[in-house]
Amino acid sequence: MSWYILKRLLLMIPTIFGVMLITFVITQFVPGGPVERMMAQIEGRTGGGEATSGSTGLYQGNKGLDQQRIEQLRKLYGFDKPPLVRFLSMMRDYLTFDFGESYYHHMKVVDLVISKLPVSMSLGLWSFLIVYSVCIPLGIAKAVRDGSRFDVITSTIILVGYAIPGFVLGIVLIVLFGGGSFFNIFPLRGLVSDNWSELSLIGKILDYLWHMVLPIISSTVGSLAVMTLLTKNSFLEEIRKQYVMTARAKGLNERQVLYKHVFRNAIIPIITGFPGSFITAFFTGSLLIETIFSLDGMGLLAYESVMNRDYPVVLGTLYFFTIIGLVSRLLSDLSYVMVDPRISFERVR
């Protein structure tokens, strides 16, 4: 086991290096970088058609920047160095999690990400808890009642929910319950109200939950179908195996067969994805959900960073989330061994 873990950790190094190298190369060919954007802003401020105050009185608004000013901008953003030198310097800083400063927000990337995490953590963690707490019991109930009216009705409901995009559902919920054309029950923006600091502890908790109802519903409904059907199919496959018939022949009732024999085998495919889903739940963001409900989270930050060519944010968050993804994959693989003693990595060399 220790050799397998060490090998996976060592393989993460070239994987991270390759991901960062490819992304860095792509950013070198994308037009409209930070230098070009700053040049456009400066020229825009001086290009409004005003006449200069010189003795000639000639129009010079669209003359542009001289080469010396352009070189100063390139040096300001670090583009005066060769690409290879910039990449190696960047990776050296990233080893100590020094991601630099955002071009657009003018603050450290780490502080910027931390400021956006509460929204992403709220959406991701609540969605994770709701999906697992609802889908596992529902999937088991559907497997036990396979083909019944309950199974058909619940399958229809969750598949309809799966077919509706989250942002469309969010708009519908706003129209129905957010002061649109019908009821004004839930707020439309932010995690908390403006007077949140003045509320009591219970009031703060209720205010936070009140704000999260519509975003959580919009981001969760589409995920229910996948986990529910995965749970149902996993339990159905185990229920139809020979050892279940043997357990019934020994006189065990259906509840004992289900939870004593079937459950521990059928739950393996579901529980192995638990570590990775739990970790990524803290850092995932949804651009459309955050935009609809005016939530300033990681999804919106990622979109703005790409559109504004904010390379420190783009590359810094990519580096961090790549590490998170690789570690969560490793934990998911290790969870197989923890829940199923028949699986061993000792022979994997």
TrEMBL record:
Residues 117-332 form the ABC transmembrane type-1 domain. The chain crosses the membrane at residues 9-30, 123-144, 156-188, 208-231, 266-293, 313-332. Its main location: membrane. It is found in: Cell membrane. It comes from the Bacteria. One of its GO terms (biological process) is microcin transport. This is Microcin C ABC transporter permease YejB. It comes from Desulfolithobacter dissulfuricans.
